[in-house]
Amino acid sequence: MRISRVVALIVGVLILCLFSSCAESTDDDPIEEENEAPSEDDNVMQYPLTVVDDIGREVKIERKPERVVSFDPGATDILLYLQLHPHVVGVDDYSSLPDEMSGVLRLGGAVNQDMEGITELEPDVVFTIDGMDEMMSDLAERDITTVVLDPESFADIVDNVHLVAEVMGTVDRGQEVVSDMEEKVGHISEITGDLGEEDRPVVFYEVWPDPLMTEGGESLIDFLIDSAGGINAAGDAAGAWVEFSHEALMEIDPDVIITPFSDTVTELQRGDRAGWEELTAVRNERFYRVESGVFGRRSPRLVEGLDEVAQILHPDLFE
Questions:
Q1: What is the pLDDT of residues 199-241, one digit of tens each?
Q2: What is the CATH number of the domain that holds 261?
Q3: Is residue 109 in some structural domain?
């Protein structure tokens, strides 16, 4: 049984906030060390321009955006990969920012947006996620342009990089980011592509511990596991945010368990989860904590997660 989109959004926010150091910087933030300003594109964008966002709206961008608010951790990542950090003036509470952006304002979460703060920043565009209808309505009343990102696959993330790059007038840099992503994914997939089914471990990814939840087939987690040379334990389930019973887990008996929760690892080490000690993954001590802000992130950072899970599943192939 799948939970509702609203509950999924809230759970996702909790995961990001509690277990991915959401408001802290990371060592892998994609800002150039020399902090250079983004270069001008060879292809100069002509404004005004109209784009179509992920919920099918035609959005008119009147001029090249100079001031941007991101209410989506994935969009924030994309802006950083595009080297557009000088233009980011505000973000949601869960975006990961490097130390040099510590002065950027935090403007709330899924249910408590600082609308006055957003308005005072006078953004040319606000990037946000699907499901923020009330916020988008309020911003429309204030004549603030919004662009919605809602990727569900790796191909969608690629499209989002192109979309953000087009809105921001840096299409050449967008293509560079996409080419780098596709090259890294292609490299890993080439190595794992010849693995037979018997060499692909069955992997259970824990999205949420209680109720136990995972991601099913055709989800981003499914893409990561498959590309890294594994088999998703919930691959036959429908999409993301799938509740998974203890009985189903026992029946599938995964070879590897991956989780963003340090408490889960501690519980499995101590044998505090009744019945789990019988699982092959637990008996062989093949359970791993990963950074949820990277693994499964709906942004170019997803590729970092792919590299990590590939090394977990096949350390002999990815030393």
A1: 999 999 999 999 999 999 989 999 999 999 999 999 998 777 8
A2: 3.40.50.1980
A3: yes
Nearest to 108 by CA among 124, 99, 122, 119: 119
Backbone phi, psi, residue 312, to 5° = -65, -45
Q: What element of type H or E holds 16?
A: helix 5-19
φ and ψ of 2, to 5 deg: -90, 140
- How many residues in the chain? 319
List the Cα angle 289/93/242 in 5-degree steps: 45
Strand order in the sheet with 146-149: 105-106, 88-91, 68-71, 125-129, 146-149
Give yes or no: residues 50 and 113 share one domain. yes
Q: Which of 100, 103, 91 is nearest to 127 (CA)?
A: 91
Residue whose structure tokens are 């997939």: 189
Prediction pTM value: 0.86
Cβ neighbours of residue 23 under 8 Å, at least 6 residues apart?
17, 93, 94, 95, 96, 97, 106
Residue 214, beta-bridge partner list = 242
Question: Is residue 26 one of the residues assigned to a domain?
Answer: no
Q: Are residues 217 and 160 in the same domain?
A: no
- The helix/strand/coil state of 259 is strand
Token match 């010849």: residue?
194
